[in-house]
Design a protein that fits this description.
five-stranded parallel sheet; 231 residues
Length: 231
């Protein structure tokens, strides 16, 4: 029950902080999709042509694209090819939403990197479920990158300590645990994030306390701060 509530809150936060662009030259469909997704707390940007989408993407930070394949000015396939040529927007995940439902069309879409391929007409709840999954995966990837960056920064700070003082060498896993402790994470949370047992987390904390000669977990949590001072 607690896991479900946590997942529900994560989805709500993800929706409120996400911006989705829908590109389709069917105005009635555009408005209908927007109205529905807005009720689910998403922020929506509408474009009735591929050229309009490319123009708006120059100034808008978008988390997901929903693209119709059959458009009058440029096909969805050609739009994606244009996106791939621009490194500032080539990373944006996309869904193909179209009346083209042949197997070869879907294969083409997936080969181009689309996260999902929905044929018209579609179930709006299915669209929302797909969006939630894509944004969740994107968030997880972002978190992993963030953690790796923080670990790298922490290692640089530790390496920059006064060489005349005692230095400590940490493994990557020890640094991950140290970072988790400094953030106030529980042993259970760190075990889940690192895919190890709680017992292993406890062992790593004991090793860190021995290496740093610190008396307890509270003191270990401030380790990151005193490395800034070069201890």
């Amino acid at each position: 029950m607690i896991v479900k509530e946590k997942r529900k809150k994560e989805i709500q936060l993800s929706r409120k902080s996400s911006k989705i662009m829908i590109i389709d030259d069917e105005e009635r469909l555009l408005i209908a999709i927007k109205k529905y997704l807005v009720t689910k707390q998403f922020t929506i940007i509408l474009c009735n042509s591929a050229k309009e989408a490319l123009y708006k993407l120059e100034n808008e930070k978008v988390d997901l694209l929903i693209i119709d394949i059959l458009m009058s000015d440029m096909s969805g396939y050609d739009l994606v090819r244009s996106l791939r040529n621009d490194p500032t927007i080539s990373h944006i995940p996309f869904i193909f939403l179209t009346a083209k439902g042949m197997t070869e069309d879907r294969i083409t879409g997936y080969k181009m990197g689309c996260k999902a391929y929905l044929g018209k007409p579609f179930d709006p709840e299915e669209l929302v479920a797909i969006i939630d999954n894509i944004l969740s995966d994107r968030k997880n990837i972002t978190n992993i990158i963030s953690i790796k960056t923080e670990i790298q920064n922490l290692r640089k700070k530790i390496a920059s300590c006064d060489k005349s003082q005692e230095t400590h060498k940490f493994t990557n896993r020890e640094l991950s645990i140290l970072l988790g402790v400094s953030k106030g994470l529980s042993n259970k949370d760190m075990a889940h994030n690192l895919n190890i047992s709680v017992r292993n987390v406890e062992n790593y904390i004991t090793r860190l306390l021995n290496k740093t000669s610190l008396p307890n977990r509270v003191a270990l949590a401030t380790y990151k701060n005193w490395t800034n001072k070069g201890e």
